[in-house]
Amino acid sequence: QQCHLWAQTHRRWTRQDWQKALFTDELRFCLTRGDGRICVYRRRTEHYTEACTLERDRFGGGESVIVWGGVSQHHRTELVVIAGNLNVVHYREDILLPHVVPFLQAHPDMTPKHDNATSHTAHSVCYFLQDRNVSVLPWPAKSPDLNPIEHVWDLLDRRVRARAIPPRNVQELAGALVEEWGNISQQELANLMQSMRCTAVLNAAGGHTRF
């Protein structure tokens, strides 16, 4: 219902409106990757029905690196490698203060978007943003298919795994992620930012989409 309401509210946003959104997220990249797929028997028309879809956390085990980044139609932030887990203090002091706030000062027409993770919605984070007159784009919970930065993470992952010499440890993985983030052209990012999924979400009545 939240996704459906969100799509109704934003369905008439123009490309110019979405150009003012800074989509941010963090993701854990694993040094090695298992398949993790599950076999589901279904009819041809049941791709995204609730009964044939499993929601799960992307965060896996093993040697891994957590990174944070932000992208928009015309801009991007630095890719930040996060030491340990991203808790409230890390998010406020290591992400918002040194990266998000300066970015918004340089681009005052932009509005950041982050999801509803606890580290993003804690009272201390909300007060921090309010004190700096930062408004955040409202976002429905558990809706990664609405966030175009997910396509950027996929592109970054494929670029790192396509390197001639793949990373052999977490230090090399972190370095490769930062390097490949910088190698992605702004045009590639712009192409991935152009498709917002309001119509698909409305057609699915707020349920799962092919994104």
Automatic annotation (TrEMBL):
InterPro entries: RNaseH_sf, Tc1-like_DDE_dom, Transposase_5. One of its GO terms (molecular function) is nucleic acid binding. It holds the Pfam family DDE_3. Residues 22-165 form the Tc1-like transposase DDE domain. PANTHER family: SI:DKEY-77F5.3 (PTHR23022:SF135), TRANSPOSABLE ELEMENT-RELATED (PTHR23022). This is Tc1-like transposase DDE domain-containing protein. The lineage of its organism: Eukaryota, Metazoa, Chordata, Craniata, Vertebrata.
